[in-house]
Automatic annotation (TrEMBL):
Keywords associated with the record: Membrane, Transmembrane, Transmembrane helix
Coiled-coil spans in chain: none
TM region positions: 38-58, 79-103, 123-140, 161-179, 194-213, 233-253, 259-279, 295-315
Signal peptide: none
The keyword Membrane belongs to this UniProt entry's keyword annotation: yes
Name of the featured protein: Phosphate/sulfate permease
Amino acid sequence: MELFILYTGFLLAAYAVIGNDVIQTLGTFLSSNSKTHWLYLWAFASTILSATLIYGWYSYGGDVSYQRLDQVSLPETLMWWHLLAPITLLVITRFGIPVSTTFMILSVFSSQQIIEKMMLKSVYGYGISVITAFVLYLLIAQRFESKSSIDKLRKTNQKRFWIIAQWGSTAFLWSQWLIQDFANIYVFLPRKLSLVELLGSLVVILTIMAYIFKNRGGKIQEMVNQKVNTRNIRSATIIDLCYGIILFVYGNYNSIPMSTTWTFIGILAGREIAINYLLNKGKLKTSYKLIAKDFAKVSIGLAISIFIVYLIQFIKTI
């Protein structure tokens, strides 16, 4: 029974986490490469994922979470209620709500002290992302996000440069996101994986990714598509690079898990405000509504996460 819960939990967590979170890193990549066959995009992302996973497993003695799970222990006995978190996340993902998988999945296995540290790191991450993206786009929006600059890009040979740049920035961002979120995917499995467990889990993850890529991201992708110019390859490149740098610098500051969802939403919010402030002042109200809607969605996800944690604690006492 325990093995059933362990492997079922991993399958549910892998599908829910990848389905909910992958769009944060690959959403702009999918949008701006909508005419490229999904198999090529999947093969590219799968190569980066496999390399990052195997490197972590080799470097940390079988620990694919890059030590993010050092303070999140696996219970001696897994019970059915541990599956409530990934099942809830799966349902939420189907409705297109970008919930924080870190809070939803890891909170079930974490102490109150670790949960507080995760929340604090994630809130700071949101604030840093909003400010960084806002300042960055105040400086570059006129040159890179105006209609005239985008039209000029289409008419020149610069597009080849930006295609290469985008695939490079996506590879960098994707690897940094995986370092943060492998913990959410692998929390149900032993902290030290054997080679067989590593390869078996990799096959499962790549299969799930193939399904998501074939469906072009699903519901969560709509959040990316609603933002200004995200289908433009140059815009997508800058978003990915900004996001990747924040995860690299701030996310690796310590090994406490953090919500990459909150960081992603923060970047989109700061970017949207700056672009519309400079270029589309008439659309500022619409921007604020979109940002408020996005923030409400992640807040709902956080509230549900906390509810699930307390529900499991209640069930344990029965």
